Structure formats: C-alpha cells, structure tokens
Amino acid sequence: MTDLLPLTPDELLTTTRAVRKRLDLSRPVPVEVVREALAVALQAPSGSNRQRWHWIVLTDPAVKATVAKYYQQAYSAYSQAQVYPPDSTAARVASSASYLSEILAEVPVLVIGAIEAGELPDGNQAGVWGSLLPAAWSLALALRARGLGTTWTTLHLQYEHEVAAALGIPSQVRQGVLLPVAYTKGTDFRPAGRIDLESVVHLNGW
C-alpha cells in the first residue's frame, strides 16, 4: 500500500485543493496507485447501493490528446465569454484554468467518472449525480492522501458524445466529471478562503 501523508481527517478535507499549476507533469503515476485510490472511492454511497458508476482511466498519450482536444475547444469558447477584474480571485482561477487547458494532454493520468443512466430525467437530477459525485470527490481525497492532486473539471462534457465515441463508452453511460491526476509539486496545501458560515446556514427553514 502507498504511504499516506500524515493528515488528520479535517486537514485532508480542508487542504484537498483544485490543483492545476502544481501538477508535476514530469513524474509518472503508477496505475496501481490510481487503482488503490479508486478502491477507497468505491466505499462512497450510491442510490440503493446500486454502484452503477464507471471509471475510465486514461494513460495512453494519443487517447489523452483526443480528450484534451475537446477540452481545449470547450475552454476556448468558455474563456472568451468571461471578463474578470485584474488581480481578482476569479482572474487567478482563470489563469490556472487556462494553464490546465494547455497542458491537459501532458497530465500523466486522466480519470473520467461516469454512471449508467441512459436518458437523463427532466427536472432535478440529484438522484443520478448523487450516485456518482460523492465517489469522485472521495477519489480526490484519496489521491491527496497519497501525495497526488487533481481538479474538478466538466468542460469536456460539451463534447460528451464525441468523447464517448472516441473512448467506446456505451450510450447508456453518462459522463459526470474529468479528473486530471498527477503527483503535486510539494504537498503543503492550505485551506482556502470561504464565505462566512452564517451567510449560508439556515436553521429550521430559510
């Protein structure tokens, strides 16, 4: 088993950050480490314990390049529609996201989280995604504990059907998240600033 970082549960939860510029593109990631983290992630809950999730792990450079191409196309359209004040947190995040779009194909491993769902229901879809996304976040936590980082990305979903065709994903399997995985440059991540708790907590009603 891979050695784990000496993090308390609260430290793990508060320092698992969106990592882009600190992904180490030069250090290989053994597939067994990713499988180990996925085995932890599969302990997450799913509706009726059906566990209908699937994890497409991409290591082949040509395959990663195909997915990266669609991601870059989606990011290009997205970024052109955004205007941020200079030196704002949003501007820094945008710079980081732009970097990721440029180097995505070079990230050692890409993991697509997907779920058997067929046609998505009209209205609230929490029942579908609530059976996938907790496990995807558990994967991010398990990776962090092992000295790896990732970031939550969904832009490629604008080209979900094209990516599915390229990867041979069946039509009844819907993609929900793309996680680029690499060792991080250092492991000294800190909690991020967040809005005041009292502004978002509602006791006994709104």
Automatic annotation (TrEMBL):
Name of the protein described by the UniProt record: Nitroreductase
Membrane-spanning parts: none
Family: Belongs to the nitroreductase family.
InterPro entries: Nitroreductase, Nitroreductase-like
This protein's record includes keyword Iron-sulfur: no
Gene3D superfamilies attached to this UniProt entry: NADH Oxidase
GO molecular function annotations of the record: oxidoreductase activity
Keyword Chloroplast assigned: no
Pfam families registered for this protein in UniProt: Nitroreductase (PF00881)
Domain Nitroreductase: 17-181
